[in-house]
Write a structure and sequence with these properties.
Elements (H helix, E strand, L loop, with lengths): L8 E5 L4 E8 L5 H15 L6 H8 L4 H9 L4 E7 L2 E9 L2 E7 L8 H15 L4 E7 L3 H6 L3 E9 L5 E10 L2
Parallel strand pairs: 5-6
Antiparallel strand pairs: 1-2, 2-3, 3-4, 4-5, 6-8, 7-8
Length: 175
């Protein structure tokens, strides 16, 4: 149990077999795998919408130490999605802001992102938070729309290096 509710194991129907995806709270020892998923997701899934300069700047701040700090000290709620023992995705929530949902490119379109998002939404409701916001990458906009999120505006996020990346600010009411 976490925060008053049990995390179930999810079974996702695949075309030729069932793939078991298990969600659990992120632990400090997950930091390296979370970092690897984040970098792979950005490099591969964002390549059609962002320049190589933007992608390089985006992944430059992705370090295992930064994830350890986020998991241990920053007050973020983070979940990891696992297939067997491999971490294939992760999500992060801070107060009413979804800060991250990333899925390894080999596991997209298998409901991993949806399961991670649903876990964050349940956690928000459990904390009496009924309106979530996020800044989505251009390539993730349609995913969030399919999950009921509405576009607020198009924006630009400035990375620590000063490189700017276009984003889509979105929100969803959970009531």
């Amino acid at each position: 149990m976490i925060f008053g509710w049990a995390l179930p194991t999810f079974f996702i129907g695949m075309s030729d077999k069932n793939m078991e995806i298990n969600l659990r709270p992120a632990q400090p020892e997950d930091a390296e795998a979370v970092c690897d998923v984040h970098i792979a997701s950005i490099r591969i899934l964002c390549a059609k919408d962002y320049t190589s300069e933007q992608i390089a700047a985006w992944v430059s701040n992705c370090t295992p130490e930064n994830y350890r700090i986020a998991i241990e000290k920053m007050g973020e709620t983070m979940f990891v999605a696992r297939k067997k023992e491999a971490i294939v995705g992760f999500s992060a929530l801070f107060e009413s802001e979804i800060r991250a949902i990333y899925v390894h490119p080999n596991y997209t379109r298998q409901r991993v992102g949806t399961l991670l998002l649903e876990a964050l939404e349940r956690e928000a409701v459990n904390r009496n938070i009924y309106n979530l916001k996020l800044s989505a990458s251009i390539n993730a906009k349609s995913f969030y729309e399919s999950c009921g999120y509405q576009v607020i505006e198009y924006s630009v996020h400035t990375l620590p290096s000063g490189v700017k990346i276009p984003c889509v600010d979105m929100e969803k009411s959970l009531v």
